[in-house]
Amino acid sequence: MVERHVRARGVRDARVLGALSVVPREAFVPPELMELAYDDSPLPIEEDQTISQPYVVAVMLEALELVDGETVLEVGTGSGYSAAVLAQIAKQVFTIERHARLADHARTRLAALGFANVEVRCADGTLGWSERAPFDAIVVAAAGPDLPRALLAQLRRGGRLVMPVGTGRAQELIRVTRIGETEYRRQDLGAVRFVPLIGAEGYSEGVARTDEPHAELPPGGPLVRAASPSRPALVAKLVAECAEPIAHIDDAQLDRLLDRIGDAHVVLLGAQTHGTSEFNRMRARITQQLILRRGFSAVAIEADWPDAAVVDRYVRNQAPPAARGRPALIPFTRFPSWMWRNEETQELIEWLRAYNAETGRSVRFAGLDMYSMYTSASEVVRYLERVDPATASVARARYSRLAPWQHDPAAYGRAAVAGKLQSSEEGVVAMLRDLLAKRLDLGDAELQFDAAQNARVVADAERYYRAMYYSAVESWNLRDRHMFETLRSLLAHLGDQARVVVWEHNAHVGDATATEMAVRGEHNVGRLCREAFGDVYIIGQATHHGVVTAAHGWEEPMQRMRLRPARADSYERLCHDSGVHAFLLHLRHPAHDALRGELSEPRLERAIGVVYRPESELASHYFQAVLPDQFDELVWFDETDGVHALADGELAIARPPPLTK
Ligand code: SAM
After folding, report:
1. Which fold has domain 232-296+502-642?
2. What are the pLDDT digits (tens) for 18-36?
């Protein structure tokens, strides 16, 4: 964590990095959040407060510029975590917390961990700790309306005070150095977001509530934050000038888009949310043109392989393989079912089926994702039962260790990493190897390809669930690598002339090197495609406000949720301020150099997956990006509607009509 999230983002102070490495953060988080202890994020603690994000602690402590033997005052003990980090560096730490329960717990924890140089007090920290003053350094872990006079007075000459100042959405991290009796030097270190400082020289209770209590820094933090764009009105005007408005997207406009796409044999179509109708309809329009006029041979979506395989047979008018007494798989039934089980996707599926039937072509529909470990395992067994019953028994044995964890694969990962059960890695990898080796022996190439892909899903998913336990970055990378490799094997399977259009979230298709993902060491499908294929075309889609179909939490019910208007410091706001309701924006056009230059200043961009949390939008849904490096083209809809989910009976694939061919 320290290497990836703290050093990689620019913190250099060896003592701060060393202290962060030795303090066990898991001892300061609530037991139920233990497994998230080494994620670089703030986490909720008692009294509706937070334990600080490690990166933020590092930035603040580095800004204190501590030298040997100093005495430090901390205001806002919280869990005691940052006091413990400080105690590794300073000679003596005094820390004040206004909530008695937090102060008591922190005192107990720090004592149990053997920190003898920390004293905890329950009081109003805005008044400082006059009996222990003066201090060499003071750090305040909550945002006040201004610098408390008492704290400035308790700073010795040469001493440093680091503290966030401002209200909910507009806070700056300030460092003050005391130069003389009444002289202080003030420096602004960048935008931050903290819980409020409540007290005599802070806010009064209830007045300064932030609506985003768990956010501390805008994603990326002050070290990589965007300089606040100086000329947003000018940039919005440039966007308006370069935009190609979409009224009713017509053939001429699609022609121009196809010209821009040129000979790319992989086209990646993104979406800022997983639940927006306009994004899916636009993807369908572009996809149809690519199939009709550029001979594209497959659509690959961010869905599980076995689910999409059912749709694939449906659109290619093929009978499902013999079921042998097992119920046929009904696609898109697992959470979040609305992501693909919706009117908009259904229309594309029906169009593909009719197109394939009319033309005799066999345009495919494939799933790139890997959340189907169990379905994929049973698909491998089902296939082998038909073609090679002896190997089917081997497969059953190899996959059997996964079976008890069917309803909670993440728990399998946890148990395997903790050494509480024997990992299935060897068996699932051997199964994939065996299936690939048997490629020529087992008849029907299509069914063999399908089974090998399912075996690949099981092997990659098994690694993914183990990685999830210790590293969010590693598991993200494994998943995007899996989706990329699936795309690559689909292209190889379809032959030299194959062209594939990919439907995934902007976060997967927009080049990761142009976003803060790269700082964390993450890659994605878009980046891997650019590296491997060169001639790819990436289109992102975004919106300002409207309705999105999403859930408030994982496995929670689907809702149609109102989308908050985009933040003032975001790309979305610039597009909104252009005044053009819907448009295509070609980001590579030579005539758009001036716009590209302006847009190359990093800004916030919004991403909503299947979960939308409007109340913590900044922390949960915004990230730093450089838009023109992320996408080749942007599709904009100022106002959007949620996808229209289908109930079980409305999904045609679940009750296929007679085959048309
Ligand atoms: N650094 C802490 C950690 O690592 O767990 C987290 C600090 S949390 C972001 C801010 C803390 O400041 C909260 O626990 C809050 O109760 C406390 N706080 C707010 N106003 C305060 C005040 N006037 N005096 C002391 N503590 C205050």
Report:
1. EreA/ChaN-like  fold (3.40.1660)
2. 999 999 998 999 887 777 7
